[in-house]
Specification:
Layout: H1 12-25, H2 32-41, H3 48-58, H4 65-89, H5 118-123, H6 131-135, H7 140-151, E1 155-158, H8 165-177, H9 189-209, H10 224-237, E2 242-246, H11 252-258, H12 264-272, E3 279-281, E4 284-286, E5 296-301, E6 307-312, H13 322-333, E7 335-336, E8 344-345, E9 350-357, H14 360-363, H15 365-371, E10 385-390, E11 393-394, E12 397-398, H16 411-414, E13 419-423, H17 427-444, E14 448-453, H18 471-478, H19 483-493, H20 501-518, H21 522-525, H22 548-558, H23 569-579, H24 592-606, E15 610-614, E16 629-630, E17 637-638, E18 651-655, H25 661-673, E19 678-682, H26 693-700, H27 703-707, E20 714-718, H28 733-739, E21 746-748, H29 753-766, E22 774-778, H30 792-796, E23 803-804, E24 818-822, H31 825-831, H32 835-838, E25 842-847, E26 849-851, H33 855-863, E27 870-878, H34 884-895, E28 899-905, H35 916-931, H36 935-938, E29 943-944
Parallel strand pairs: 2-6, 2-9, 9-10, 10-14, 13-14, 15-18, 15-19, 19-20, 20-22, 21-22, 24-25, 24-27, 27-28
Antiparallel strand pairs: 1-13, 3-4, 5-6, 7-8, 11-12, 16-17, 21-26, 23-25, 28-29
This protein binds thiamine diphosphate.
């Protein structure tokens, strides 16, 4: 806080006077520090201000009695400011670097800067500052000494950015009272030595047995394991039952073994790496992953009689990409969705821990995106413990080239996350900080960051020579004794162990590992997770129809608002129509929004919880959804799906922050943790999903083959060429289709509300039977297109159709010469084109499911037209985009003697035209050419696909 009313210099003067005035009127209106200060100093003598101004100006006090009081006040202010500066800036002088790097220090930590002398400090009472330190000190000199020991030792408390007064007060008290540190909370020294022996012994054994093999040794940051022990056991003793830890390569094998309890035998079997080939299970291929990306879960008894379960999910090389995934997992694990209404998240139920690299944390944008989720209603996880495993180097890059902030942790300051830097060679300091972190998290349900500052014993991997690039640093590293040795020496000097105990412990650990290796049966000890695969045809057999009476009851419920709730006038008109949409079962009255609403309502009635997020999803980008209504008079909100009387599971909907990578990562994590929930992410426009390409590549499409995970996340991606320019046109279906293999997703581009209804319901029904991610290219203008409507009967009967043949062409099947294959909006353009009537030899078949491509259904369609001699794939995307490259080889195999051709916009680096007029012209030409039987031969934009 600022100094108090006596700080008469410059701008502080007005501030202190104002603060004092507030205190005088209501002591509770100022923060506790100011309250205490003002209570001790009493009201300022009227002459003090001018007297002190004089003294400050000339450096002497005159004989005026007011000035005499002022002399004391100047010393008091100086002493107080010095104490406050140590609290705020002490971390700048803290000895947090085990390699002996000198802290920068700060002039504010020197008495002279505050015009106070040692004699002044000796003469002022210690009770002058509030809190434990003040109360236990006779003089301010003692206070300053104690504060220096606390704030400028091996721990740097970086709290000055914490604005919340309660949090600030709690942190200061916790730190200064020493309540988390020994001797108040003792540490079992020999047990900790045992732990450090396991950690170091494991690395030493691997180094000896598998020299040069990459393992990303933890050495230099060995205290990471005891820190995790402390955080987990404290949380468990507070009643938390579920923990999640995410980390990158560095130290991962050690943490998996010692914190997650992965058996030595399995770890060593992975180092032996027997040839296993590629696994194939019921026609689906699994490739596995390198050992330092794999997952582990451990259940262990903690507190009372309930198990604490901790999971480390698998993660890719892409640093920090796991961060939002882990948060989503924690959110799901702490959520109760088993009843209608909004789900209930219990922050005490879960504990997420994210371990970052010191180069990756400031460097990767997804970290900022993830931190931004931490206090948002739809995303909070009750506080994450962040640990920067800070080895002061990134691969070969020095920190001076890694970040522009003072510390690697700088980004967290903006999010008001308390930060503590701690020297990883100081065992007691590290344990104290771990306790502080979890204590704060328990108290405030907020994130906390531990910057664990250590070093890296070897190069980036164990085969690298670090002295090529960091010779000076590695001269120091090579001379360093390990933290185990440092702690053993401390215990020996305290008489807690005797000489030789530490060496004996290490020898025993190395023996244990050797025995484990000697008795290894690599094939048996290697456990791989391969998921079950659903029997073929599971998806095709899924029933999705909902009887009409049930649909009508659900429609009535979703169209009901609470008494007195005023719906916007324009929406009320639309809702009036919706109320009657199911009256006539054969009238085309169900639009896209109605179909979606009814799908969700019926899924909730079936007992499947739904979570729907994305930018502006509550209203819907195109103002069609209105899943959350706002009372026109009061602004109060209401979600009919959350008030649905029929619901047997919760409905959750949130407008997301403006992020793709972290929000999709979060939904992915939520989805794999809660596989029986229907988790849907909607893009504002489909293009924006490329902001999350890492999450798509590394998790959504490949997690099953690599790690045996079974995501079933749904993406709603608005996609169509509608003249809005190069962006807002394409959800980049070609990218998904290029990644489609091993049956790792379903991709749909459907053209009717009924199809959308059945697609969503099928996905919900398959969540536990045949889970796969579902990519849906969704409409924009078609949301309100008169052709894009369904009858109630189409919802009440039938099911998802991967292909929709041309019903109008059936009766002239014998005349059909060309079959147009198309998908999505272009199909509607073709079906509603005036040219259709004039070209009776052309039939239009809609491919509603792009992956897996429904080849047998397509073959049936081809065979049903006996005179068919040309199959033309028509897409509005440029030829190098859209589905063409993907469908071409498969169609080539199906078409037989018939010619296969394509009609598309010319190959292009940009997805669409910049001008809507040019778009309209090109679109018109494309549709016209589709019906010209000779067009595909004449046009340069056409390619022969055979
Ligand atoms: C997104 C991403 N970019 C680049 C890399 C390549 N890479 C692997 S480790 C590493 C350095 C990481 O440094 P730091 O975060 O300090 O972790 P450390 O390896 O030092 O523990 C880099 C650049 C990567 N894995 N992920």
């Amino acid at each position: 806080m600022a100094a108090g009313w006596q700080d008469f210099q410059g701008v502080n003067q007005g501030y202190v006077e104002e603060l004092y005035e507030r205190f005088r009127k209501d002591p509770n209106s100022v923060d506790p520090e100011s309250r205490e200060l003002f209570a001790k100093l009493g009201p300022p003598p009227s002459s003090t201000l001018s007297a002190l101004k004089t003294r400050n100006a000339v450096g002497v006090a005159d004989a005026d009695p007011g000035a005499a009081a002022a002399v004391d006040a100047v010393a008091s202010v100086g002493a107080f400011n010095l104490a406050q500066s140590i609290r705020r800036y002490g971390h700048l002088a803290a000895t947090i670097d085990p390699l002996g790097g000198r802290p920068t220090g700060d002039p504010a930590l020197e008495p002279a800067t505050h015009h106070v002398t040692d004699a002044d400090l000796q003469s002022l009472p210690g009770s002058f500052v509030w809190g434990a330190v003040g109360e236990s000190s006779a003089t301010m000199a003692e206070v300053v000494e104690k504060l220096r020991a606390i704030y400028c030792g091996n721990i740097g408390y970086d709290f000055a950015h914490i604005f919340n007064p309660e949090e600030r007060h709690w942190l200061r008290q916790a730190v200064e009272s020493g309540r988390f540190a020994p001797p108040v909370q003792p540490i079992n020294g020999p047990a900790l030595l045992g732990r450090l022996t396991e950690v170091e012994g494991f690395e030493r054994f691997l180094q000896r047995t598998f020299p040069g093999k990459t393992r990303f040794s933890i050495e230099g940051l060995d205290m990471l394991v005891p820190v995790l022990d402390e955080v987990i056991s404290t949380a468990a003793s507070h009643g938390t039952r579920r923990g999640f830890i995410a980390m990158a390569h560095r130290g991962r094998l050690n943490v998996m073994t010692h914190v997650l309890g992965k058996p030595y035998a399995q770890m060593l079997a992975e180092f032996r790496d027997p040839v296993r080939g590629v696994y194939e299970h019921q026609g689906v291929k699994f490739d596995g992953d390198v050992k330092y990306h794999l997952a582990a879960t451990r259940e262990f008894p903690a507190g009372r009689d309930v198990n604490f379960v901790v999971t480390m999910p698998p993660n890719p090389s892409h640093l920090e990409a796991i961060d939002p995934v882990l948060e989503g997992m924690a959110r799901a694990a702490g959520t109760n969705a088993s009843a209608g209404g909004a789900p209930v998240f219990d922050p005490d139920a879960v504990l997420p821990i994210l371990i970052h690299g010191d180069a990756a944390f400031p460097g990767q944008g997804i970290v900022a995106e993830t931190l931004n989720l931490n206090k948002l209603d739809g995303y909070t996880t009750g506080g994450t413990i962040h640990i920067i495993a800070n080895n002061q180097i990134g691969f070969t890059t020095d920190q001076s080239d890694e970040f522009s902030t003072l510390y690697a942790s700088g980004l967290a300051r903006g999010f008001k996350i308390p930060i503590v830097h701690v020297n990883a060679d100081d065992v007691e300091a590290c344990v104290t900080v771990a306790r502080l972190a979890i204590g704060y998290r328990q108290a405030f349900k907020r994130d906390f960051l531990i910057d664990l500052v250590g070093y890296r014993r070897y190069g980036h991997n164990e085969g690298d020579e670090p002295a090529f690039t960091q010779p000076a640093m590695y001269a120091k590293v090579n001379a360093k004794t390990s933290v185990r040795q440092i702690w053993a020496a401390a215990l020996e000097s305290r008489g807690e162990i005797t000489a030789g105990d530490a060496d004996a412990m290490l020898a025993a650990k190395l023996d244990e590992l050797q025995q484990s290796l000697d008795s290894l049966q690599p094939d048996k000890d290697l456990v791989e997770s391969v998921p079950d695969v659903a029997p073929p045809g599971t998806a095709a057999r899924t029933e999705t129809a909902v009887p009409l009476d049930r649909l009508r009851a659900l429609n009535a419920s979703v169209m009901t608002t609470p008494a007195g709730f005023t719906v916007h006038r324009k929406l009320e008109k639309i809702r009036d129509k919706r109320r009657k949409a199911l009256d006539d079962q054969s009238a085309p009255t169900v639009d896209w929004a109605a179909a979606e609403d009814l799908a969700y309502a019926s899924i909730l009635e079936d007992g499947t919880p739904i979570r729907l997020t994305g930018e502006d999803v509550e209203r819907g980008t195109f103002s069609h959804r209105h899943a959350v209504l706002h009372d026109s008079a009061t602004g109060e909100t209401f979600s009919a799906l959350q008030a649905l009387p029929q619901a047997k599971a919760s409905f959750e909907i949130h407008n997301s922050p403006l992020s793709e990578a972290a929000t999709i990562g979060f939904e992915y994590g939520y989805n794999v943790q809660a596989p029986d929930h229907l988790v849907i992410w909607e893009a504002q426009y489909g293009d924006f999903i490329n902001g999350a390409q890492t999450i798509i590549d590394e998790f959504v499409v490949s997690a099953r083959a690599k790690w045996g995970q079974e995501p079933s996340l749904v993406f709603l991606l608005p996609h169509a060429h509608e003249g809005q320019g190069p962006d807002h046109a394409s959800a980049r279906p070609e990218r998904f289709l290029q990644l489609a293999a091993d049956i790792n997703m379903r991709v749909a581009n459907c053209t009717t509300p009924a199809q959308y209804f059945h697609l969503l319901r099928r996905q919900a029904a398959l969540l536990t039977k045949d889970p796969l991610p579902l990519i849906v290219l969704t409409p924009k203008s078609l949301l309100r297109h008169p052709f894009v409507v369904s009858t109630p009967a189409e919802l009440a009967d039938g099911r998802w159709q991967p292909v929709i043949d041309d019903a109008d062409a059936r009766e002239r099947a014998h005349d059909i010469r060309r079959l147009i294959l198309c998908s999505g909006k272009v199909a509607v353009d073709l079906l509603t084109s005036a040219a259709r009537k004039a070209n009776p030899q052309v039939a239009i078949c809609r491919v509603e499911q792009l992956y897996p491509l429904p080849v047998s259904e397509l073959a049936d369609v081809f065979e049903s037209y006996p005179k068919l001699d040309e199959i033309t794939w028509v897409q509005e995307e440029p030829e190098n985009m859209g589905a063409w490259d993907f469908v071409r080889p498969q169609l080539s195999e199906l078409t037989g003697r018939r010619r296969l051709s394509v009609l598309a916009r010319p190959r292009s680096s940009s997805p669409a035209e910049g001008s809507s007029a040019v778009h309209a012209k090109n679109q018109e030409r494309l549709i016209a050419q589709a019906f010209e039987l000779s067009a595909t031969k004449k046009l340069s934009r056409t390619r022969d696909g055979s």
